[in-house]
Write a structure and sequence with these properties.
CATH class of the largest domain: Alpha Beta
Distance between the termini: 116 Å
Structural class: alpha+beta
Oligomer: single chain
Largest sheet: 7 strands, mixed
């Protein structure tokens, strides 16, 4: 009888101890959960970052060298394009407005904007939506300097810089038949059949015309012996700008 009572007492004590251990473990687990919940959200600091899009394939090296000489770090963005290069640059200070103005004056950047949450994705989406773009650089005289891009939905963005009728950014949409004709014109011509550069290095005072379509970019400095089909594409876009009174 004594043995039975002793066994019962041991059993009750062990149950009580087990319960305390479980309660202790549960309490510790709850404390850990509370600690995890109390961790603050650490926001990324973008105060020294800009997102840049390089303008032309042929001067990518020049642009990267310029950044390096200005003590600016470059980081590639995962963007699948053989022509357009997008990067995040880290500035030596947080004077982003100053750096934007300084970099925009260089003729190697297509876009320079402040980085922030979701900015890179927006820039990539914007680039992927471009149907065709055309830009003209300066010469020693009064050659028009501007950039124009036409998006897949017909939205046209014109940025007049020098010797144009309208300076600055102007945005409008192509008429349905204009967009259709342009797409037909592009579909009929394989840009891979054109040379990448039409030039005569011996002639110095020539403006450059750069046409970008898909993964192909063509630089034109010498118009002699240029394929008629390429001239037709160029003239179609330029004619739209004249009709909108953007060029003179």
């Amino acid at each position: 009888m004594k043995y039975i009572l002793f066994s019962l007492l041991v059993f009750l004590l062990s149950c009580k101890t087990s319960k305390k251990v479980k309660e202790g473990a549960s309490s510790t687990s709850n404390q850990n959960k509370e600690i995890i919940k109390e961790k603050p959200n650490i926001k990324k600091d973008y105060s020294r970052e800009l997102v840049v899009v390089l303008k032309h394939e042929h001067n990518n090296k020049e642009a990267l060298e310029l950044l390096k000489n200005s003590s600016i770090e470059w980081k590639d963005v995962d963007y699948n394009s053989k022509i357009t290069k997008i990067g995040i640059i880290s500035l030596p200070d947080n004077q982003r407005e100053v750096w934007i103005k300084r970099l925009e004056k260089q003729n190697v950047f297509k876009k320079v904007i402040k980085n922030g949450t979701g900015v890179v994705d927006k820039v990539i989406k914007k680039e992927e939506n471009i149907l065709i773009s055309l830009s003209k650089t300066a010469c020693f005289g009064d050659c028009p300097v501007y950039e124009v891009s036409i998006e897949k939905d017909g939205k046209l963005i014109f940025n007049g810089r020098k010797y144009v009728k309208e300076k600055g950014i102007h945005i409008f949409s192509l008429e349905a038949n204009q967009l259709k004709n342009l797409k037909n014109l592009l579909d009929k011509n394989n840009f891979k059949n054109f040379k990448k550069i039409y030039d005569n290095p011996k002639i110095q005072d020539l403006s450059s015309t750069i046409i970008t379509y898909g993964n192909d970019q063509i630089k034109i400095r010498l118009w002699k012996n240029l394929p008629e089909k390429l001239i037709e594409i160029h003239e179609y876009i330029v004619d739209i700008l004249y009709k909108k009174m953007l060029l003179e």
